[in-house]
Amino acid sequence: MKHLKFMLRSVMAGALSIGLGSHALAQVRPDLAYTDEDEIYTGSEFVSNTGMGALQDRQVMVYDLSDGTSELGWDYAAQGKKGTLLLNEGNPAYDPDVVLAEYESDYALAVFINQNNYVQWESYYWDGNEFQLHRSCILGTQPTCGSPNVDVNAAGMVAITWHQSTEIWEGWELDFDNPAIVTTEKNRLALRGGMSFVVSDIYGAYGYVDGSGNDIEGKGCACSEEAGPSISGAINCLGDQVSPAIDRPLNSYEEDELYEFNKWPDVSISQFHDEGTRVTFSYVNGHYLVDDVTADIHTTTGTVYQPHMWYSGAYTGLITTPLKGQPRIASRKNNDYPNDIEIVTATGSCNNWKINNWGIFNDDQRLDVTLVNPEYTTRYSTSPVVTYRGGSEGYDGDYTIVWATEVEFCLDENYGSDVLGRSYKNGDIIAGGTVYSYINKGNFHGDGLEGDQLIPSVAGRLTDEGVDYMFFESLEDINMVLYKHSDVVAGSGHVRVAPDPNVNTTKGGSTGRTFDAADNFSSYPNPFTDKVNFAFTLAKGEKGDRMIITDIKGIQVKSFDLSSYKEGAHTLEWEPGEIAAGIYLVRYSTSQGIKTLEITTTD
Hints:
Blueprint: E1 38-43, E2 47-55, E3 58-65, E4 70-76, E5 81-86, E6 93-103, E7 105-114, E8 119-126, E9 131-139, E10 145-152, E11 157-173, E12 192-208, E13 240-241, E14 257-269, E15 278-290, E16 297-309, E17 319-320, E18 328-331, E19 341-349, E20 352-361, E21 364-365, E22 370-371, E23 381-388, H1 391-396, E24 398-406, E25 417-425, E26 428-429, E27 437-438, E28 452-459, E29 467-475, E30 478-486, H2 517-520, E31 521-524, E32 532-538, E33 544-551, E34 556-561, E35 568-574, E36 582-590, E37 593-601
Antiparallel strand pairs: 1-30, 2-3, 3-4, 4-5, 6-7, 7-8, 8-9, 10-11, 11-12, 12-13, 14-15, 15-16, 16-17, 18-19, 19-20, 20-21, 20-22, 23-24, 24-25, 25-26, 25-27, 28-29, 29-30, 31-32, 32-35, 33-34, 33-36, 36-37
């Protein structure tokens, strides 16, 4: 799954501290002693896009460099194999994405924009030591392609999407009798003029991860006669127009609309289904509108999705969502619910940045949007990505959202960026996951670690457990692409911490720190009626941090400052007063790690 491009206004190195503000209690303190990140790229080139695929214990990654090239990297840790190669034989390649799946052998399928502004895909097979180019071909009906993305399922079926976008200069003269316009002396001149309109449509193509495809109606869509059918559209060999065909009026007297456009698509594919494997496109649908008073032209946009069957060619109309912004989408790995998806977007302006989530669970569309970063809307937040978790958790509907956020912003000061993550199910925070997990080693709490971490990508659906992550790190003149795998549930503890095999790090467990949190933090009685006691022990050199109590939706109910507590055993009593009966989550944090447990109060 590929990130949304991070529009970095400035990159400044340095050890920075977070401005905590009034919502600081959702913060997670870092553990400086542990990190499990690895590098796939180190150099002077800046990175603006990343993409990732994961299959069990194997990872593939793509990233584009500021010199105009893109690289494919891989890590087959169990085989001790790691390496990189240049996409497009070292020719220009922009905005790449990649997937990994087993299809007789392991295949990685990368998509990117080539030097001629067409979509190009390249399929690579694993020969036991490295990836070798297997097939390559071009998609797109005109050289105006952008935003390519690809998804794959466990059967090796792939779906690719992109937009074809141009700008046209149009002059207009709005009729004074247009009932949508109230003519005044002030706007009379505005009724005539010219401007550039974006004309953009969404396209799609289908096939398999090895680059093969179906022979649609005997058309023989192949890059060469020897190779046989290749990835193609279901109607057009070079790709189908997926978004609805639009009559784009310049002067509509019945409506106040001018051009309509569709841009920035993403795509997801369900598991193989006997009654038809689902492919879902999600993209931004926009309209140019004429102001009914001033006659000024402006745009309005919304996030839409468009489901249909793989390779069917029968494209349905778009469906609106309550979201706005460029989407990233994931499909659930559950054959009983092939329509289930999760979409994330980023919107906002200074001091009001939002990471939003909406989706379909068990075939039911949620009515409300989930705000992923309620405590951090005052931070510049961007580049959200989403993946269903590996194994049974993802099958049940658990998913992880990751995004980049600034330490400081909207200020004339130095600032840095970190990567955060949280986990959800049907729009609700997973039990025990009420904190914000740092995916990277970070610029926070004055830990002395430098650099900016941004542009995340994630993959998890085809793994047995957990999620794989990658992101870009910039530090002065050194740029790196880092990656990792973690079974820790984002939102329950630091994903950047290497899990301790002796500690439960799965859903509802601890954070993966190397102390037995079950022994040094507990509550009694549980359930309780009037009051509850929390018992904890601080080891030698360990410092207390905070204890935060929230309801099941993550709304803070009470917090305790533990910074004054010293080595030894302690007991803290809480008498909540009038609170609703039910389950509450308690996050206990020290300099050594974090433990989250559930308590229950009864009437």
